[in-house]
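1st attempt posting a full record on here, be nice pls
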Amino acid sequence: MFRFAHTYYFYLFLVIPVLTFLLILFLTWKKRALTRFGRWEVIRQLMPAYSRSKPVVKFILLMAVLSALIISLAGPQTGSRLEKVKRKGIDLMICLDVSNSMLAQDIKPDRLERAKQALSRLIDNLEGDRIGIIVFAGKAYTQLPITTDYAAAKMFLTTINPSLVPVQGTAIAAALDLAASGFSESKHNKAIVVITDGEDHEGQALEQAETIAKKGIVIYTIGMGLPQGTPIPLYSGNIQIGYRKDKSGQTIMSKLDETLLQQIAHLGNGMYVRATTSETGLTRIFDDIGKIQKSEIEEKQFSDYEDRFQYFTALALFLLLLDLFIFERRTGWTQKIKPFAHNV
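the predicted structure (as C-alpha cells):
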C-alpha cells in the first residue's frame, strides 16, 4: 500500500509552470537585447562559447529537483504490515453532481465548491465509517471506491470539477444505481447522500430510489441552490466571460427542483435538506446518519507505514549535483563538435 501523508504539498507543483513562463520571458528578452547590436548570426560568431540549449537543460534539471523535493515533502509512505482490525461504522456513498449548473453562484463561491468544502469537513469527522464518491452529470462515474482511507478521499475530492464528466445533464438515477452497486456484499448498514440541484434530465430517479430502499439502503438528498433560479456562469479558462445561453439566445436559469429531491429522500427513508448561504445541510444529515446503528466490521488494512521520502531526497541531491557540473557556456570539447561542418 502506497500513500502520501501530506498531500497538500502537491499544490507547490503550481510553481513549475510559473517558473517556466518566466524562463521563456527571460530568454526572449535576452535574445532581443543581443540582436540590438546586429544580426543574430553575426553575434553568434562573436560568442563561440554561447550555448542556447544548456540553460534550458539546467532549468529542466532544477525543475526535476524541485519536483523530487515536493514529493519528498508530501511524505510518501508504504504499508509494511497488513493485519485484521475491527471497527464500527456504516458504508457511506456520496453522489456529487458536477454538471455545469452546479457552477451557479446563488450559493457562494458556487454550488459545487461549497459542496466540496462541506464534504471535506465531513471526511474530517469520520471515524470507522467507509466512504465512496460518485460524480455524475449526464453519466455517472466512480471517483473513489468505498474506502477507509480518508486522506485519499480528501485528495480525490480536490480534483473534482465539471470536466470529469464530459456528457452534460443530471442523471440522478444512474448515480443512485452506481452508488448502490458500489457497496460490498455485507450485512452492515449503508447510506447514500445525493448532492445536486435536482434538475433531473434522465428521469427514473424515483423508481431507482424505491428499488434501492428495498435493499435496506437509506437515501439522503441535499438541494444545492435556490428555487427562484440563477444564471449559469460561462468560463474561458478561469475567467468568466458571461452566462450560458440556450439555442434561442436566452440566458439559461438553473432552478432547484426541491419536489424531486424530497420525493427521493421520502422513498429512500431518509431526509431532504436544502443548502443555504450559511450552511449546506450536510451536518444535519450526518447527525441523522449517526443515529443509524453501526455494525462491527472486520477487515484487513495496513497498520504500520514506513517513510520513503529519503529516496526522493537522494534523487533531488543527485540531480542538483548533476546540474552543478553543467555550465551554461559551451565547454572546449563541445565547441570542437561541428556535426554539419564540411571538409574543404
